[in-house]
Amino acid sequence: MSPDLESAVSTYLHELGQTGRLSTATIQTYRQSLENLGAFLTGVGIGRWEGLEADILRRWLAARTRSGTSPRTLARDLSAVRSLYRDLIRKGVTTGNPALLVRPPKNRRRLPVILDVDRMGQLFTRTPRTIGDHLDRAVLELLYSSALRLSELVGLDMTDLNAESGLIRVRGKGNRERVVPIGSPALQALAAWLRVRPTRDPRERALFVSREGSRIAPRTIQARLARYGLREGIGARLHPHLFRHSCASHLLESSGNLRGVQEFLGHQHLATTQIYTHLDFQHLAQVYDETHPRARRQKTAPVKEKR
User: Fold this and answer.
1) Domain boundaries, given as residue ranges, for the chain
2) Rounded mean pLDDT of 134-154?
3) pTM
């Protein structure tokens, strides 16, 4: 990538990080997208962002498509370019935003995988005995009880938990805070974990820590959940977002309160929460097909050939 292209990207992303509007992970994905585009532009002889035109942007997206990039990632790429050019226009570097002339690729939205209530209940039958067991149980219970993202879970501090009121303070995307309730089983599991939580470093504030007493890493949580699922023979790959999806779906199915579930999950836009209405309808359709006397298909006898 040419020095001018790289300098503009670095300045923009640094300023974006200072605002706190976007998470560190989102800024990193923006960096990957813009660096990829910058390398492409340098390869075709364009060394400044003012030289990008819509047709060249389409060529880049087409090249990304041929390399196997998903429509969702391409849409993210285009979003990063649009955002960069809004900043360049504000600074007077350029007057047009070529990304506004390019349509994002259509993305067929996949419904999230969930566990039904019975299979979810199977995960909580084992009695914890070791420190690792108590850690697993507390993580499982809290993920399902409060529908936390992985980053929110590992970012929790001891002071975020208010066991007396049954609430926990969560820092979500874009450093937006919300307070969510915790169910009684999760509170009990957390109390049991706190009794055995390693305290090698008394200055460590993290709620969940490793054996060494430092804040637990996201990958450690992912690995522990995967092993737990295999050990319990649940028939599905366990990962943090599976619990978030399952909790949201079960809440919406029981309450029908879409706005309440949106606030509970910390979604900025209602459209993000609405995917769970599709899951709810899918479940309803399955129940209808299996139970309604006029919906069940009759097996018809094969028609015999006349001789």
Assistant:
1) 3-101, 117-290
2) 91
3) 0.55
